[in-house]
Design a protein that fits this description.
Layout lengths: L1 H18 L7 H12 L2 H13 L3 H29 L3 H4 L7 H34 L15
Membrane topology: Multi-pass membrane protein
Family: Belongs to the sodium:neurotransmitter symporter (SNF) (TC 2.A.22) family.
Main location: membrane
């Protein structure tokens, strides 16, 4: 008797969820998805090199300040527009006719990333396999004898 009532309640809950707009179940899911979409592979492999070449700590400080001043408001704007429109990213930008091309640019950027990221992942996997098979050229320090 309890299981039948429980199943009926679950069915009602599922129907309510299907009728409502799609949202994340927990706050943690929202945060993890947002971070994974905004912090791409470029940040992982280019930021350390850029920091070393452009001054170290001042560069990182400027990067973080600009991320907070420019990046976070744009992220919240995009999340808000998507939540308000309850539609895909192409149709949600049609709210303002001036910005209707933004959705198509985002689609193009996503397609280009689908070409670019597998290349980086493939090169990384190739390097890992190569590293497991042989010793790396920079693993050992060869002694250089200088003769005059």
């Amino acid at each position: 008797m309890l299981s039948v009532q429980l199943l009926e309640k679950l069915e009602l809950l599922l129907l309510k969820l299907q009728k409502s707009c799609q949202t994340w179940l927990t706050y943690l899911q929202t945060v993890i998805c947002t971070i994974s979409l905004s912090a791409g592979l470029g940040n992982l492999y280019r930021l350390p090199q850029s920091a070393v070449l452009n001054g170290g700590v001042p560069f990182i400080a400027a990067y973080l300040i600009l991320t907070v001043i420019i990046g976070l408001p744009l992220l919240f704007l995009e999340l808000g527009i998507g939540q308000l429109a309850e539609d895909g990213f192409i149709k949600s930008w049609r709210v303002v006719p001036f910005f209707k091309g933004v959705g198509y640019v985002k689609l193009l950027a996503g397609c280009l990333l689908c070409i670019y990221y597998p290349l980086l992942i493939g090169l990384s996997l190739f390097y890992i396999v190569w590293m497991a098979k042989e010793s790396l050229p920079f693993q050992e320090c060869a002694v250089v004898k200088i003769t005059s």
